[in-house]
Amino acid sequence: MKITHVLIPAAIGTIFFSSSLIANTNNQWVDPFIGTGGDGHTFPGAVVPFGMMQLSPDTDTVMRGVDPQPEIYKRCAGYHYDDHTIVGFSHTHFSGTGHSDLGDLLIMPMIDTVQIEPGSADNPDAGYRSRFSHDQEWASPGYYGVELLDSGIKAELTTSERAGMHQYTFSKGQQAHIMLDLTSAIYNFENKVIWSDIRKINDRTLVAYRATNGWANNRQMYFAIEFSQPIDNYQFINLDDNRYRCMDCLGKEKHSTIENKQVKEAAGKAIKFVASFNNPTKQPIKIKVGLSAVSKSNALENLQTEIPDWNFTAVRDNAAQKWHHYLSKFEAQGSEAQKRQFYTSLYHALQAPSIYQDVNGQYRGVDGEIHQGKDHTHYTLFSLWDTYRALHPLLTYVDPQRVGDMVQSMLDHYQQSYDDMLPIWSFHGHETWTMIGYHAVSVIADAYLKGIRNFNTELALEAVLATANSPIYDATAEYKQFGYVPMDVLPESVSITLEYAYDDFTIARLLEAMGKPNDANVYYQRALSYKNVFDKQTGYMRGRDSKGQWDPEFNPEEAKYMGPFTEGNANQYTFYVPHDVQGLIDLIGGDTKFEQRLDALFDTHLSDEMIKEHEDIAGLIGNYAHGNEPSHHIAYLYNYAGKPWRTQERIRQIMDTLSSDKPDGLAGNDDVGQMSAWYIFSAMGFYPVAPGDLSYAIGAPQLPKISLKLPNKQVFTVEAKNLSNTHQYIQTATLNGKPLTQSFITHQQIMAGGQLTFVMSDKPNKAWGHAPSKRPPSLSTVL
């Protein structure tokens, strides 16, 4: 099977897998370079599904004593496709975030002369940094390879869940050097490293540790590093001493005894280690690295358990097979470009939340203590403001067992948190308090309502209610007092009010499903709080203070930093009432006015001046910002006004103009898989506008045929007959041979399996889905 980087000739970028199980499977359609350009913020390196280890090249990082690069936002994942030098390969990365951290333990090979500083992109010869070319760079699920042009070293990477493997093949040089850098980081600030240490325990093995202050403070990570051959020479380098301390004679160590072990080690805030090897062209140098947030011994156990030998090809094939297991849950037909987009989206969507637990079950909790996971795997990286929308609903079909473990991991967070809160935006045992809302409740409710119950459901209800009524979190007290968050109490007050209202809807749904109708009614009423920030005079959601006065500086197009809206403007956020779109239509003045307002959103130019304070507002069609989450459901809202054919137009417009199979093919950062999950659902022809209500608004299928293998052994297939560039409209629809006249489908219909068939046309069917009874449900229509 060929896995070819789509932008390079097949003869150069071809990788052959030895496993016949992988040949001609959906792995071949994944291009990890999609999203590494523009502001996609994905990384091309090696990772397995939901893996703790993300082993990937860094094209620029922030080095000790060097000011942050002015374009560091582009490199939130450590790598950017526009760059032409590599500084090394580190073991932890975010995929598609709008913030940066991680980049733990950078490793870089070199030949002959030891370099301990990276040099610069403009002058790579001044350090160990190497030039590279995309023509000699390869990536596929679970594998990454590149030629380091300055040294003639071929670097290859692969991973398991908690361990990674490097393979460096040297074409020249009298001596090879492998540098281990504990100072490097993917952005933050000077003196990010609080403390680090590294110890050589024999002539092949080291253990290391570092704690960092970054997006997460005092984040701890442990490493076990093993070489495939004995180290011939080595250096410990402590940059804090303003000198290089070299402890390099293996002969001295040979005189030590087991009883009087003279272990070589170094500790400080700026530690590096260089291992040197003679005759490097004789055989490749391989390195295995295990990770743990608990201890060095756990890192070593993770390494020895998951990668016990030195067969790089076997590890690579095992990683590919794990991806094959998940990628084969979907079978998609379409052009090669469409399949690359679809399967790469699935690949990106299945990287997080990621495992954060050692093979012995231990993990470091949000309280900093070591806990033992007994009945579930513990996960981290909950970017919930982004991922509650489409990623978590997608996972309920792809792997419900993991979804239950993820929910239980959120409950672990709740029990260990000093604030009695579910996670907001958490990773590696730390809460960052980034973004707004309490969207963990949406994920929990959606899972429970779909029958996923492999978590402590009573504890989940307790945690949901405690979080929604927290006395310390983002003006929840004022929200309950006034029915909205006043703008003189908290910035981003309108967005917070709207997102609380949606979350309260999901709580009501959960309470109702758990047999507590009276309690549910309280939260259904709270879910109507969105009406309290709707200004009937202007027709927009608008900030108001604790005296009830409207924002006097209101401009519906302006997105102010620390203003009434979160990474958006009133034009966008006025449409954020996903749970009660009919109620919003009534406020705006009916179907026709609502449609006109949607058209104005898409068709009115938004000037750069209005969004200059928010780099996340990207992928614009008028005021619609596909590159940021508050817009993701908006194209589907025409359905609720009885105009589903307009949704069909808009979905095609978004697909055609804001996504591609190129490195800059994402309209904004992928946000830990949310953008990718939007693409998967939308390509199939439906989308979860309000997770928790168990309905999906129908858009328009973008591929001729997609089948989903469900966890209950059923298969749900969507087929679009006559689909073409001109035939974008749904003429008729049938579900299992029976006419489907409503513009939505339900979770139950999907789980039952069968076939949803659309007949596409170049002309809209304006009667289909038009009647009020045929529209997706809204809270106002069911209360």
Automatic annotation (TrEMBL):
Domain Glycosyl hydrolase family 92 N-terminal: 29-292
A Pfam entry, by short name: Glyco_hydro_92N
The keyword Plastid appears for this protein: no
UniProt cross-references to InterPro entries, sorted A to Z: 6-hairpin_glycosidase_sf, GH-type_carb-bd, GH92_a_mannosidase_put, GH92_N, Glyco_hydro_92, PNGase
Keyword match DNA repair: no
Keywords attached to this entry: Hydrolase, Signal
Chain ranges passing through the membrane: none
Limits of the Glycosyl hydrolase family domain: 298-761
Signal peptide (UniProt feature, chain positions): 1-23
Annotated GO MF terms: carbohydrate binding; peptide-N4-(N-acetyl-beta-glucosaminyl)asparagine amidase activity
Any one GO BP annotation for this protein: glycoprotein catabolic process
Any GO CC annotation of this UniProt entry: cytosol
Protein name: Sugar hydrolase
Organism: Pseudoalteromonas ulvae
